[in-house]
Amino acid sequence: MDLSVIVPTFNEGPNVAELVRRTTHALQDRAVEVIFVDDSTDDTPDIIRAVAAASEIPVRLIHRDDPKGGLGGAVVEGIRAAASDRCVVMDGDLQHPPEVVAELLARAEVGDVDVVVASRYIAGGTSDGLANAVRTTVSRASTLLTKAMFPRKLSNCSDPMTGFFLVDRRSLDIETLHPRGFKILLEILARKQMRVAEVPFSFAARFAGESKASFSQGMRFLTQLTMLRFGRMSAFAVVGGIGALANLAIMWALQMVGVQYLVAAVIASLVTIVANFLALEYLVFADMRAESGLMRHRFIKSFTFNGIEAIVRIPVIWVLVSQAHIQSVLAAALTLIAAFIVRFVFHALVVYAPKKSRAAKIARIVEPLEDELAA
Ligand code: GDD
Ligand code: MN
Predict the structure, then answer these.
(1) Atom 17, ligand 1: which residue's CA is nearest?
(2) How many CA atoms lie within 13 A of 365 on its CB side?
(3) Ligand 1 atom closest to 130 (CA)
(4) Model confidence at 375, in pLDDT bands (50, 70, 90)?
């Protein structure tokens, strides 16, 4: 096998036959397989099976009932299952022309790189197929931001946000990848210094169906970026900081409409505690939710922690000021910093602790700490 083509799909039925047809045609003289890693909720798996039965080249289907990690998780699963070490990742909507796969393979066969990126942003490439001006601007801006955050690792990559690339599986530490959301190439390039080459391509319009990109994918991307660069603890801090500002804003707004200040403070705190918890659930610890039991149990633990923290901090300030003779504002600041660290450790190790096996539990305890050390 020269190459495995991995295609993540979510409700892409009408594109499957055309994608296999063009891939087969473009790689006629090569031994290739196509692996669909499918999280669809419609009849796409049946269509893939039917196309596979009629195909000249091997077409495999991995259907996931538990779509962990979304698009990125699907890609990692495909890479694990591939028959060839050379894996191309390509969208299932024909925005990535299968004809370019031959060029990616030829470039990889020179043998001097680990990753060949199909880029929209070098000479010869275009991004005309992006749905509209907003998508184009978002794509450009997030590319710039990402390159600024990883100037060295992305120095040879003009398009870290592309979902179209070839990777040699032997150069990856698959276990260290944390696929969360859409940007799996970024995850691969940011974890470890890779040797990268690029091939230009024209990002086409969708063949059929509609895009699955969304605002919530955008939020996940920003969280992913923060975590990759600064570790999970920073994402936790950013969420906490926004929460604190929101708390003050809500309190101010309520007082403006005549609510008494203590009542306003209680309402503002309750709203931010719940909002903060949801941000932890869906952004900071999204990849750990599935294994850590019931959401309402996590909420109770998190809520209890906040209460105990508030109660414990006051006497600690008193001890610091009266016994250790530390200035009061400094003492309060020290307790806030300590509380922040304890809160992070508590959430990472207790609230989001996995419920499954002991081995998985140990891995989950070590991983977040490793992330922090790396950062
Ligand atoms: N298995 C699986 N699971 N596949 C998914 C999921 C999921 O949760 N979500 C989306 N996909 C598949 C889609 O079916 C499609 O084949 C591919 O991932 C890309 O999704 P689109 O909905 O077509 O996204 P896009 O066109 O907005 O984004 C693409 O372009 C970006 C560059 O602008 C993606 O390729 C991105 O990775 C790329 O960065
Ligand atoms: Mn697309």
Answers:
(1) 91
(2) 10
(3) 33
(4) low
